[in-house]
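Service request form, structural biology core

Requester: graduate student, group of Dr. S.
Request type: structure prediction, single chain
Budget code: on file
Notes: please return the result as structure tokens.

Sequence provided:
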Amino acid sequence: MFKNIFSFSGRIRRLEYGLTYLFYFAALGISSLLFYTSEFLEPVAFLIIITNYWIILAQGCKRCHDLGNNGFYQLIPFYIFIMLFQDGQSHVNNYGPNPKSEELKEKKESRKRMSFQNPGHLVILEIIFIVLFATLILSINNIIFSDYDTFTTLSYFLMPIPSFLIFLLISHNDKPLPKETSVLVNQQLIFAFIYYITIRLYAIIFRLSEVDIETILFEPIAIALIFGLTYIPLGIYSLIFKSPSVKNA
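Core staff response, request fulfilled:
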């Protein structure tokens, strides 16, 4: 995933295109803030905008290829909804092999290599990447709604739901969840801990939050709450990608 993002050749799956669109809007928000912050930062903002448009067009072209169409199809009004929600062609087409099958092969090989070193290494990297992206979204949200402390606090505890769902989609590759509950619980605990620590550091550094006895006592409760919220995306994922036994029932 996210290989050759500047290239207009090849195919990508809808998940990668959807994540690219999230990055696209986040980069637009950052560039707009740079424009209004200082005149000296305007060239940097302009460079971000140009790069941003190039990437979204390149990724859109490859997404059209995955559907078996020319890259110019992305210019058709409302065709973006087809690009976001329609599954790509399962077979090899004129633009290359199915990215799902290729990505699955690479992921299996990667996990085999990592299993000899650290079995949880790849999972932790995926969680860190998703949490950092969630923190970026929250920071933009905090800048826009700086006067709404209640809304900011609420957003802290709502972001784990889509974030952990994205992690499940990437980690389990659209396959049914494993039957071993210990595997899922470990992923939930790692995610809850990393998410809270990252958000807490962000609040201390950028929002100048105080550290006292009350906040220290609240931290285990907050981690437990985030852990509990991860059951919502688990339920959503299980409904979307049911196990074969459930389908045959």
